[in-house]
Amino acid sequence: MMKHFGSWEKNSINNNNESLINEYFSSRKTRSVPTRIKKKVLNATVELVGGNGFINLAQTVFDAGQELSKSENTNVSDLLPHPTAVSVSFCGISLHFLNEELQLYAFILGCYPYDRDNQSSSQMQQFVDAKLLEFDLSVENSKFVATDNENKMKSCFKDPCIRIGCSIHYLSKQLEHCFTSVTLEKIPQSKSPRTFQSYPDNRFNGAFPTMNVFLTLSNDLAGVLDRTFLDDYMLMDKDLLEHVRSFLGPFEELINELSCDKKPTVYKVLPLRQCLINRCTIHQNDHDGIRQMKTFL
Asked: Counting Cβ atoms within 10 Å, is residue 37 exposed (0-12), middle (13-18) or buried (19+)?
């Protein structure tokens, strides 16, 4: 054995010119694919290409290929939307009830992904009716439906119920006109040491920055306001406004966090909702006005 190892070491020194084996014969033995794996592949394929969705996708890809056949260097990634741009419409339905003492009871029935072909008034009405039917509810002449003031919502709920516009949207529009009016813009800013802020476009949290600017400029408004409005201005409870601003601060932060358009935020809705519910817990040292707001919310 020692002689054998010695001869092998001598031969291995000059092995640079030796031919190497880089091709191999495949084994003639065939191994059958397990039935379990075949079924998984088959089911995955059927799920992928089943239904009208895949047919629509294939037709769209075919049409895009015909349209871009004459162009050069077409990258498929340029045709695909960004993941954050792929949006899903949701329909939120809630039930509100006033008792004889005018106490409001609100029940959130659900927030459902809208899965209809389009957003026509008939399709939207059928979608809402189907969801209400799950709770043995229906839209009737004796019921009021509160929606926003878009034309498709007006057309959707014009029959057979009584549609009323959302008061928040009405107030938002009034504030928007007040802060963006041409007449108000003519007021010289030189009377105030600071610049007034225009009404923000975001209808959900537009009141907070407006209130924030008002409290910041509250000490300077006395020299700008007309005598007619000065008396009303002096009657304002600034202490209550400070408490309201402090109370609405977390709402502003959470709305901005959920408004992020660069990454999904749906998974944050439930924990942030619970955070706001905890925020509405009444404490003994709360201002009377804040107690009323928390009770209402």
From this structure: exposed
DSSP states of 45-82: HHHHH-SHHHHHHHHHHHHHHHHTTTSSS--HHHHSPP
Measured CA to CA in angstroms, residue 68 lies from 9, 24, 65, 75 at distances of 65, 45, 5, 11
Q: What are phi and psi of 113, to 5 degrees?
A: -70, 130
Q: What is the pLDDT of residues 169-189, one digit of tens each?
A: 766 666 666 666 655 555 544
Q: Which amino acid does the sequence have at 93?
A: I
Kindly report, residue by residue over 26-57, the tens digit of the pLDDT: 556 555 656 766 666 566 555 556 667 677 77
| Of the candidates 120, 77, 119, 83, the residue with the CA atom closest to the CA atom of residue 261 | 83
Residue appearing with tokens 């092995």: 15
Distance CA 150, CA 89 (A): 15
**Distance from C-alpha of 210 to C-alpha of 279, rounded to nearest angstrom:** 22
Q: Nearest 5°: phi and psi at 146?
A: -100, 120
